[in-house]
Amino acid sequence: MKIVFLSDHCDDFLQTQIENTLKEYQHLSYHIKEEDFKPCRGCFNCWTKTPGKCIIATDKANEINGFCVQADVIIILSKILYGSYSVDIKKYLDRVIPNILPYFEMINNEMHHKSRYDKFPSLIIIGYGEELTDEEKNTFKSLVSRNAINFHSPKHFSFAISSSGEKKKTIDEISRILMEEFK
């Protein structure tokens, strides 16, 4: 099983625990905050001029995108801000559009982009923050579900953690998911 782990590197405990969990798997880790990711220009050249590749070649977005489409699972660790991803994770996720096509199809009676590739990875997305409201947690989980549709992920799991007690429980659940769901 190939795993790509993307983190905004803001929660050292979760970061370390997930890295420890992944030691027994083939994985690549990227600390998005440490990278200098440029924001998406919205030029759509990744669809028309350089299909499947962003024209911004000065950061690691294309490299990570290549690993992600070959992975079985992508794990994302992000601080939750107003029910959404951290700025660093969002900036990277905006750069994933080369992995889908500019054409549309109906999925569950909704219009979505067609997939560029035959296989896409499953998603495990962990959001965290102190004193998150139920509304923020629900918004985050809904966002993850919507992203899973757009990313054509065969399975997705989302977690919204707002206390230290939930951290250990979530790490245990991620270990279980990796062992049982992706045999």
How would you portray this structure in words?
The protein is of the alpha/beta class. The protein has a single domain (2-180), classed as Flavodoxin domain (Rossmann fold), CATH 3.40.50.360. Helices cover 37% and strands 25% of the residues. It is built from six helices and seven strands; from the N terminus they run βαβααβαβββαβα. The protein has helices at residues 12-22, 45-48, 61-70, 87-94, 134-150, 164-180; strands at residues 2-7, 26-31, 73-79, 100-107, 110-115, 122-128, 156-161. Strands 2-1-3-6-7 form a five-stranded parallel sheet, sandwiched between helices. Strands 4-5 form a two-stranded antiparallel ribbon. Strand 1, helix 1 and strand 2 form a beta-alpha-beta unit. Helix 1 (12-22) runs parallel beside helix 6.
- Which class best fits the helix and strand makeup? alpha/beta
Number of domains: 1
Distance between the termini: 8 Å
Order of helices and strands: EHEHHEHEEEHEH
Q: What order do the strands of the largest sheet run in, or round the barrel if closed?
A: 2-1-3-6-7
Q: What is the CA-atom radius of gyration, in angstroms?
A: 16 Å
Remind me, CATH topology?
Rossmann fold
Shape: globular
Counting DSSP H or I runs of 4 or more residues, the number of helices is: 6
Largest sheet: 5 strands, parallel
- Proportion in helices: 25-40%
User: What is the average per-residue confidence, as pLDDT, rounded to a whole number?
Assistant: 93
